[in-house]
Amino acid sequence: MIEENEIQKKTAARDLGSGSVGRLLLSLAIPTVTAQLVNMLYNIVDRMYIGHIPEYGVQALTGLGLCFPILMLVTAFSALVGMGGAPQAAIAMGQKKNEKAEQILGNCFSALLVISATLTVFFLLFGPKLLVLFGASKETLPYAWSYMQIYVCGTVFVQLAIGMNAFITTQGFTKISMMTVLIGAVTNIILDPILIFGLHMGVRGAAVATVLSQSISSLWVLRFLTGKKTILRIRRRNMKIQGSVLIPVIGLGISPFVMQSTESLLNICFNSSLARYGGDIAVGSMTILSSVMQIMTLTLSGISQAAQPIISFNYGAKKDERVKEAVKLLCICLVTVSTVFFLAVELFPGVFVAIFNNSSAELAETTSWAMRIYFGAIFMMGFQNTFQQSFVALGQARISLFLACLRKLILLIPLIYIFPMFLENKLFAVFLAEPVSDFIAAATTTTLFLHQFPKILERNNTGK
Q1: In whole angstroms, what is the distance from residue 170 CA to residue 91 CA?
Q2: Is the separation of the CB atoms in 388 and 400 below 8 Å?
Q3: Residues 12-31 pLDDT 10s
């Protein structure tokens, strides 16, 4: 049995169920957002360095962009387990069922190991065929495969670093979770120029740097979750996978999994359409656009992750007013961030493009033009992210799954192919699909949450 006095002492220190919600959200958000932005550097720094390689930087950058669906899919599986298990564990903690929370942690750890082994074998066997399917040409395939075959060998480190780190965040140890990403990102930033330029490894050097960095991050996570400072600890007796424990986790994790895995499918659809209408330059511009989009989405995600343990814990403890206040503050924060970001990319697109490219005027011109279209409704993402992530934090698997499918699978992917059928400028039509789907999905999500939120709280209080 877990020592209850020790648990209560540690939980009180996290202050999830008492005190000012605003101050608590701020104290959790600062390290969490910092962690997300630093985490972004794993792939962004790779692209920055690779895009500036003399002679073949543009081709290498495009090749790396073709690997993006694979990277997102690996991350999506970590979200399936981590983001599905972390809210469940927080709710159990709010209900003072810490043994159940540790069972969830142990099962999720084992599930991540199994998934990592499966993904590694699959991608090594079918990698080149997948890259061609994603839009790789004869010029870009060698660069894409050089990066991918090294990266997927470190899948287990990515899975554990991201998936298990969610359990550190959900306990309120956001400074520890921030260090998980900070340690890896700093290592990556140091190793990238050494391996890419110093040892002349090029794209392979970027992949090796990423794998080594993620391995260090995963060791940090496991050291904490098996140590004495954590509330929930990985224990051998909880590592045997049980359907009764893991199935609800997977059910809730389907939503964040779909959100991230469809990013891979979405990237494939964009790349194939852009390759058809604009060639490698258009695909290269999408690599930059997706990188800039990642800056904003990870910022929003960081704030959402800070709010998740507050919402989940107090929902489990049936403290409705604290739940409502947390959701309200989350909405204000995310809408503000998304609006500021919208103004920045619309007014100064060239600044963002220059981060990733200084060698191709054609690529810079195409990307700057496309950026104003692609991010045309990004201010609505604050509402979308707030209410979709709140559904996850409240344990609402079915609704969150529908909303995860709505923006990309139901709206965006079909529009990528439909708009070019009716608009003369095909490239404009492809990029236009993004803002249209963003606006419709955000409006739908907001309406659905405002309708369902009171009912969810009522059912929780009555036990129905």
Answers
A1: 10
A2: yes
A3: 345 666 778 888 888 778 87
Task: Report pTM.
Answer: 0.70
Query: From residue 222, how far is each of 31, 233, 448 by CA, in Å?
Result: 19, 10, 38
449: nearest Cα among 371, 398, 393, 388: 388
Residue with tokens 């469809």: 262
Q: What is the DSSP string of 114-156?
A: HHHHHHHHHHHHHHHHHHHHTT--TTTHHHHHHHHHHHGGGHH
Strand boundaries in 151-258, DSSP class E: none
Which residues touch 397 (CB under 8 Å, ≥6 apart)?
A: 248, 251, 252, 254, 255
- What Rg, from alpha-carbon coordinates, does the chain have? 22
Question: Over the stretch 103-160, which tens digit does the pLDDT of each residue have?
Answer: 999 999 999 999 999 999 999 999 888 888 776 777 778 888 888 899 999 999 989 9
Q: How far apart are CA 381 and CA 60, in angstroms?
A: 31
Task: Return all residues near 394 (Cβ < 8 A) that are at least 6 apart.
Answer: 311, 312, 315, 323, 456
**So what's the pLDDT on residue 58?**
67
Neighbour count for residue 422 (Cβ, 10 Å) = 7
User: What is the 3 state secondary structure string of 361-420?
Assistant: HHHHHHHHHHHHHHCCCHHHHHHHHHHHHHHHHCCCHHHHHHHHHHHHHHHHHHHHHHHH
